[in-house]
Amino acid sequence: MISLIRVMIFEDNKHLRETFRFLLSNSNGFACVGAYPDCSDMMENLAENPCDVVLMDIEMPGMNGIEATRLIRQSFPHINILVQTVFFEDDYIFNAICAGASGYILKSTTPDGYLEAIKDVQAGGSPITPGIARRVLELFKDKLQPAPPAKEYNLTTQEKKVLQLLVAGKSYKMIAAELFVAPDTIKSHISNIYAKLHVHSGTEAVSLAIRDRLV
Amino acid sequence: MISLIRVMIFEDNKHLRETFRFLLSNSNGFACVGAYPDCSDMMENLAENPCDVVLMDIEMPGMNGIEATRLIRQSFPHINILVQTVFFEDDYIFNAICAGASGYILKSTTPDGYLEAIKDVQAGGSPITPGIARRVLELFKDKLQPAPPAKEYNLTTQEKKVLQLLVAGKSYKMIAAELFVAPDTIKSHISNIYAKLHVHSGTEAVSLAIRDRLV
DNA sequence: TATACAATAGCGAAATAGGGTGATATTAAA
DNA sequence: TTTAATATCACCCTATTTCGCTATTGTATA
């Protein structure tokens, strides 16, 4: 008994859809268990025809491929979804990943490329067209390191401690107690902090401190 | 005149290093402009031998490939760095991307795979081994959607507005003015907000609101 | 039709925060 | 050695915040 990778196709372009079906039906190790132009009966299709991999177009009439991906992942988490598109849109890429796509390839891929990609996702990998992968890495970097504190504010070590306790929601008295100094000293520090941060209240200072990662 | 992709290699394993050198020197369109076992003289090497792509091992004696990647990106931002490793470590992947690696491949790649990957990075893409790409996507998802507000707090719409303005550093009076109601109304709302959030001061509320993404 | 909740508003008292000014001791830099 | 920055503390005064309690209105909901 040979293990087949069962693939379901969602692709609105009829010619492409039939090409995929033909390719999968005539390649060893692959089977096409359905090919549909839109996602109108998607959940029923998936429930009736078990499959391992879904080849999902993004641009489709009705529900788009990203929303469809999200739905499939919710009800059939074991299915690997290979998203394909003609566009490089950052929003597409970002949303497709968040929706749970397991791979993301460009439509310019060769027939063998498709088969390779389907094998890759089935094996637990995530084939990504290099051009798209570059965008993924850029997005990753942008989102994950939103610039270290652009401004330094030149807070002293004691001021930083006070600011931290202020962010923790402590009152002047409590901060004073924790740092073993007089409440008036804390008041003085906080005045200086406000001046350096150009704010005039605790809430403003806390807000800025958190957003600028001063704490 | 043919355009060559000039590649510099950093790889501590002598056999691998020489294999790469041989492969690049004997493949059309590629040139090896240097192959070193560590990064001790890296910056000088790069300054003296212009190159387009660096093939960088992660595990090396002395400076590791990730730190080296960071340094190269700082001084030679036009150079594309292709990182390779034998390990699937999430930390490696994460840090390599943040350091500015343009591609990330496993050492099990075939000779042709290396040449393809080098061509890909030079063309502005980011070849990533599917297995690693899967980890990248997982990391991406984990880091970017750090759980929606675990607690709901059941704030009303008006209370949310008030909280937002409080986070913006506004005083009771200013909030009242912006929402066209009496200051005492804001006082009431804030009392209710504090009760729902289990806090007792503006700074605490702002801190919690930002950290729990209520705003 | 009661009941609950949201939004509104007011009153009073106590606590806290914030602005200003000034002083002292210590330490680091010019 | 003078100067500048830091950390400390005090006093005065006002504004703001916080807590409690009460109360009205409109809108859903049981």
Describe the structure.
Two copies of one chain form a homodimer. With 215 residues, chain A is of the alpha/beta class. The first copy, chain A, folds into two domains: 5-140, Rossmann fold, CATH 3.40.50.2300; 146-211, Arc Repressor Mutant, subunit A (Orthogonal Bundle), CATH 1.10.10.10. Helices cover 52% and strands 13% of the residues of chain A. Chain A contains ten helices and five strands, in the order βαβαβαβαβαααααα. A five-stranded parallel sheet of chain A has the order 2-1-3-4-5, sandwiched between helices. In chain A, helix 7 (157-167) crosses helix 9 (183-197). The longest helix of chain A has 15 residues, at 130-144. The model of chain A has no long low-confidence stretch (mean pLDDT 93). Chain A binds chain B through residues 97-98, 100-103, 120-121, 123-131, 133-134, 136-137, 139-141, 143-145, 166-171, 199-207, 210-211, and chain B through 97-98, 100-103, 120-121, 123-131, 133-134, 136-137, 139-141, 143-145, 166-171, 199-208, 210-211. Chain A binds a DNA duplex (30 and 30 nucleotides) through residues 156-159, 171-173, 181-185, 187-192, 194, 200-202.
